[in-house]
Amino acid sequence: MTFTQAISSVLGKYATFSGRAPRSEYWWFVVFSILASIAAGVLDTALFGAFSLLTFGEIDAFTPISTLVGLGLLIPSIAVGVRRFHDMDHAGWWLLLIITGIGALVVFFWFMVRGTRGPNRFGPDPLEF
Q1: Within 10 Å of residue 95's Cβ, how many Cβ atoms?
Q2: Sign of the torsion angle spanned by Cα atoms 93, 99, 104, 106
């Protein structure tokens, strides 16, 4: 799956928590999210300067465009994470491990592992054509 195919797939399934997502779809969306966050930060600085909705000492938080981008990508990020777990034949609830410190490392490792070969209880193998 290419970069543009992955982005259109994830955003096309904006709030779809069923089905499976291959590694390439998930990781290309992570790259897109990082690039979108950087671009939003640059736009915030260019358009609003030092304006922020909340300030913690020297750190500006919740700048307008970055906040909108983050909120806009929140649901598809969770959805593609759930579908990634489905690809490994795990329930999407395992994504809640990210809340714990060590669980985030476990999830990071799991998302690098190839999914179940062939169909599983969540659907057909997304890598089979």
Answers
A1: 20
A2: negative
**What long-range pairs does 8-16 form, CB within 8 A, spacing at least 24?**
10/76, 10/79, 10/80, 11/76, 13/76, 13/79, 13/80, 13/83, 14/75, 14/76, 14/79, 15/75, 15/76, 15/79, 16/79, 16/83
Cα–Cα distances in angstroms (integers) from residue 84 to residues 7, 21, 38, in the given order: 15, 5, 24
Report the distance separating Cα 39 and Cα 65, nearest Å. 9
| 77-103 per-position pLDDT tens digit | 999 999 999 999 999 999 999 999 899
CA distance 37 to 3: 17
Best CA proximity match to 66, nearest among 53, 55, 76: 53
**Collapsed DSSP state (helix, strand, coil) of residue 118:** coil
**pLDDT tens by residue, 106-117:** 999 999 999 999
CB neighbour class for 44 (10 Å; exposed up to 12, middle 13-18, buried from 19): buried
